[in-house]
Design brief:
By secondary structure, the chain is α+β, with helices and mostly antiparallel strands. It is built from 13 helices and 16 strands. The chain has helices spanning 39-47, 55-63, 75-89, 137-150, 158-167, 172-175, 189-203, 207-223, 227-246, 297-311, 332-343, 355-396, 449-471, and strands spanning 19-25, 30-36, 64-71, 98-99, 105-108, 117-120, 129-131, 257-264, 268-277, 280-290, 322-324, 348-350, 405-414, 417-427, 430-431, 437-440. The strands form four sheets. Strands 4-10-9-8-11-12 form a six-stranded mixed sheet. Strands 13, 14, 15 and 16 form a four-stranded antiparallel sheet that branches. The longest helix is centred in the last third of the chain and has 42 residues, at 355-396.
Length: 472
């Protein structure tokens, strides 16, 4: 690890202006990005007494080998540039709110030719609409079973779908009218997509439109003495109302708000948000973050809003008129200006003091407390095991310091053809999947595994040296 004295900039060289700074390690990787109203004051705080810093901040300062900065014209520009760099470099020491993946969501894969309704946990996928979360998990299965009665959208896996296409026979759901059976051509791709869009519209809150339409059809069936159809429509209306009533009104129907809450200790913090649209809770998300610097709650709120609304990759993350927080974010004026710029309209960020909104925030805070407690119980054994494994590896290889980054390579082929290689990365004992890579191997390098491995290692470090030379 580097001694901070070796790369500390002279005080007179650091400007007094607002700006954004980056710490890099000995390999040139950006490991931390921060912003400051006064660059000189902020950077000097890292070097004045490194031993007095928080443990994780001290580790960052001693891991770094250089620091650089960029002066900007205003604090708003600093906020925007900081977020851009964090997204670009994904620095390992920055505060990053990691998604809580423990809740199941109802998902509709609108990116497929025949959209599929399914239950998903984990990372959110592109071109997929999400609704929920549902707790307990039984509730989501009941919702799906009820909804496909009225909107018979495909729910089967790709394997089941292809087998039905080959045999020309649908699965059981196709026979009992809980699937429109696009696999055997009972419905066109366009009509099936329209069904999926209606399914999404209903789950997004447009329930009254569909219920009114079914009631009108039921009345027409009764007028024509078609009582069998009327009874079926009656049952469909009852099913939709059961789903609709699960989304109970928690605030006035004209309320669109995101309600955030935090629960923290000296090392970590858990955050939760309820997305309220039309007075109903339409979604929820949770994150857990490790504190790197000695951050106050307003700083955490600022980073949380910056990350959630900066992503902009989910319908739940569309910025509402009202954002309710436990405390106002630091640099609140700049944050308000940034949010208004993203939304293109007024945004109110405030702390609820009393009434239904304050009560609902209490519920969100309880969720955050539960999430932090669960995270702590799961991580207690993981950290101990990981640290022990890294120390054991260091001793076995007789290394002066632990292996903070490990890259593993492997070669694969099909009887000597279609040769490919993969690289997986482990940092601090954890997989860093964003840096996994695949390599295609052709020509003379594909003659055997030894030549292929040489080619991959050579290309990897050639690119690394080129990247390092470009940054210096």
């Amino acid at each position: 690890m580097a001694n901070p004295v070796t790369y500390r900039p002279k005080t007179g060289e650091i400007p007094l202006d607002p700006g954004v700074y980056r710490f890099r390690d000995e390999h040139g990787r950006v490991i931390y990005v921060g912003k400051a109203k006064n660059l000189r004051s902020r950077l000097n705080s890292y070097f004045a007494n490194p031993q007095g810093l928080l443990a994780k901040t001290r580790t960052m300062v001693f891991t770094a080998a250089s620091v650089e900065w960029t002066v900007v014209g205003s604090e708003l520009e600093a906020l925007q540039l900081e977020y851009t760099w964090i997204k670009e470099f994904d620095p390992r020491f920055n505060v990053m709110f990691r998604d809580d993946k423990s809740y199941p969501y109802l998902a509709v894969t609108m990116g497929e030719k025949y959209p599929r309704v399914q239950v998903l946990r984990g990372d959110k996928k592109k071109d997929t609409r999400y609704f929920g979360p549902f707790y307990p998990a039984k509730a989501i299965r009941e919702t799906v079973d009820t909804m496909i009665r009225v909107f018979p959208v495909r729910t089967c896996s790709a394997g089941v779908f292809k087998r039905a296409e080959r045999t020309g026979r649908p699965c059981l759901l196709g026979y009992i009218d809980k699937c429109s059976a696009p696999c055997v051509g009972r419905i066109t791709p366009e009509d099936h997509r329209a069904l999926a869009e209606d399914f999404c519209d209903f789950m997004s809150g447009e329930a009254k439109k569909f219920i009114s339409g079914l009631e009108k059809k039921m009345a027409e069936a009764v007028a024509e003495l078609d009582y069998e159809s009327a009874a079926r429509l009656r049952d469909d209306i009852a099913a939709l109302r059961r789903v609709f009533e699960r989304n109970t009104v928690v605030l006035s129907e004209d309320t669109d708000a995101d309600i955030f809450a935090l629960k923290e200790d000296e090392l970590e913090a858990a955050a939760q948000v309820f997305h309220v649209r039309g007075g109903r809770i339409r979604g929820q998300r949770g994150w857990v973050v490790e504190k790197v610097e000695d951050m106050e709650t307003p700083d955490l709120v600022e980073h949380l809003l910056q990350q959630v609304y900066g992503e902009g990759n989910s319908s739940n993350e569309q910025i509402p008129r009202e954002v309710l927080v436990p405390v106002l974010p630091s640099n609140s004026d700049q944050m308000l200006e940034w949010l208004r710029g993203l939304r293109g309209a007024r945004v109110d960020v405030r702390v609820p003091q009393r009434g239904d909104k304050a009560t609902l925030m209490g519920t969100v805070e309880q969720n955050a407390a539960d999430a932090l407690r669960l995270h702590k119980s799961r991580r207690a054994g993981d950290i101990t095991t990981r640290s022990a494994a890294l120390q054991e590896l260091q001793e076995a290889l007789d290394l002066p310091q632990p292996l903070m980054r490990i890259e593993c390579f492997d070669i694969s082929h099909v009887q000597g053809t279609n040769v490919v290689a993969s690289m997986v990365v482990v940092e601090d004992g954890l997989p860093r999947k964003s840096e996994y890579r695949k390599f295609s191997i052709t020509g003379d390098a594909a003659r055997d595994d030894t030549a292929s491995m040489y080619d991959v290692i050579y290309r990897r470090f050639r690119n690394y040296l080129a990247y390092k030379a470009g940054d210096t």
